[in-house]
Design goal:
Elements: H1 12-43
Length: 45
């Protein structure tokens, strides 16, 4: 009979780091999309 330990829940610091990474990725995608639209609109003139 073996005893299995449940994995420990993620720490708050790890969750905060994941949230910061997600916000940074979202900001980068948003800025990239805005820059692309700005470039396309300036080329369309």
């Amino acid at each position: 009979m073996s005893i299995t330990h449940e994995p420990a829940p993620p720490r708050v610091r790890h969750q905060a780091r994941d949230a910061v990474v997600l916000m940074a990725f979202s900001a980068a995608v948003s800025l990239g999309g805005a820059a692309t639209l700005l470039l396309l609109s300036s080329l369309g003139r």
